[in-house]
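quick q for whoever's on today - can somebody do inverse folding on this one?? i tried earlier but teh output was garbage lol. tokens:
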């Protein structure tokens, strides 16, 4: 169901005053995100006219901004990505593992997004690969997809990585080593190694002068203060969580779709906005996922949304091990040969279709008669008006 209220509506109502009041705190990426979402699927970006071959129905379809932070643009991107991933599914249990950093580290990450998010990916990958390669656990090479999320339910900055992992490893001798039923790898071992590897990499970055600190964190530029923070973090438990395995490849694909192209907040969670505030729905995980409403001042909502804008060129979905892009096709073929009693992958048999998701529709089908819509004319881009506050989306 399409939400009547959209993030774009909030940007149109509260964005101009927010940009004016916080002009010195909005960077190029944040301004471009605001501009793209505001102009998405409007006459400002141009479009085309579609007409039905069988009836008189015609409509104007405006172009999408294609910004990866836009709630309206991620649906089609997700469907295309999942269709490509369907051929990679293995007929084995899949585990969902989540790695989270403490709040003190999250604050450093916010001021050094590209560097610290990269360290987070590296530490997660090294942790999973190291523990899986240990003969005491699996003794082989894992394959997994890692997806960065930076938000909590209330749009606060909460960087963490979701990993989707087939339940087994490929040994150096060419054997498939399956995980124990409903058990992936020891969580306490993963947590301790993850903490150590992350903090080692963070210390190296600080020693090389690659970290920047300002505001409340300015004191961390001092080596002594930074060393004290690292020492304190070593004493804290770091959260690593592994959910039970999924029941089938279909469930894996449907579940994966919930995480890959998600943005900080979907339009469907927006409840109301007025001249001063924005109200949205959230779930209280600490109280049994109880549904709640949160009301924020309009500028504060925009500030929280923009906390999660990613640096240009940063990849938030990455593939590792036998699912890495350079070797995936060959390694998956080898693994399937080692699982002779299982069905062929969905792309080869057609037995497993992409799970239907509510709200999917075919934009080439006429909503009136079911006929085929054809493009009959183009609509040029219109002048978006003065660019006093935001640059254009190009």
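ok took a stab at it. sequence:
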């Amino acid at each position: 169901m399409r939400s009547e209220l959209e993030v774009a509506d909030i940007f149109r109502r509260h964005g101009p005053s927010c940009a004016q009041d916080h002009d010195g705190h909005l960077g190029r990426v944040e301004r471009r995100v605001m501009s793209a979402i505001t102009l998405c699927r409007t006459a400002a970006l141009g479009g085309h006219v579609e007409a039905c071959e069988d009836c008189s129905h015609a409509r104007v379809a405006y172009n999408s901004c294609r910004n990866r932070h836009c709630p309206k643009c991620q649906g089609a991107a997700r469907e295309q990505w999942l269709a490509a991933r369907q051929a990679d599914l293995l007929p084995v249990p899949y585990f969902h593992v989540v790695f989270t950093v403490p709040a003190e580290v999250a604050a450093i990450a916010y001021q050094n997004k590209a560097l610290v998010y990269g360290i987070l990916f590296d530490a997660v990958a090294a942790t999973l690969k190291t523990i899986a390669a240990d003969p005491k656990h699996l003794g082989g090479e894992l394959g997994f997809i890692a997806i960065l999320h930076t938000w909590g339910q209330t749009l606060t900055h909460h960087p963490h990585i979701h990993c989707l992992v087939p339940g087994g490893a490929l040994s150096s001798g060419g054997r498939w080593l399956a995980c124990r039923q409903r058990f992936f790898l020891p969580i306490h071992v993963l947590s301790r190694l993850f903490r150590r590897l992350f903090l080692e990499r963070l210390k190296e970055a600080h020693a090389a002068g690659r970290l920047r600190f300002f505001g409340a964190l300015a004191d961390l530029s001092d080596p002594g203060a930074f060393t004290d923070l690292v020492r304190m973090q070593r004493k804290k438990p770091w959260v690593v969580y592994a959910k039970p395995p999924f029941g089938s490849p279909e469930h894996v694909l449907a579940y994966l779709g919930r995480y890959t192209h998600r943005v900080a907040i979907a339009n469907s969670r927006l409840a109301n906005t007025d001249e001063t505030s924005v109200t949205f729905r959230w779930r209280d995980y600490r109280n049994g996922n109880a549904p709640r409403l949160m009301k924020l001042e309009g500028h504060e909502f925009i500030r929280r949304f923009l906390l999660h804008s990613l640096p240009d060129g940063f990849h938030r979905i990455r593939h590792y091990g036998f699912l890495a892009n350079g070797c995936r096709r060959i390694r998956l073929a080898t693994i399937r040969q080692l699982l002779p009693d299982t069905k062929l992958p969905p792309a080869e048999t057609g037995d497993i279709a992409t799970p239907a998701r509510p709200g999917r529709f075919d934009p080439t089908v006429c909503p009136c008669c079911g006929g085929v819509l054809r493009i009959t004319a183009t609509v040029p881009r219109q002048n978006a008006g003065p660019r006093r506050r935001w640059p254009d989306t190009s």
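fwiw Residues 88-264+307-344 form a domain with the Replication Protein E1; Chain: A, fold (CATH 3.40.1310). also The first strand starts at residue 47 and ends at 52. so keep that in mind when u check it
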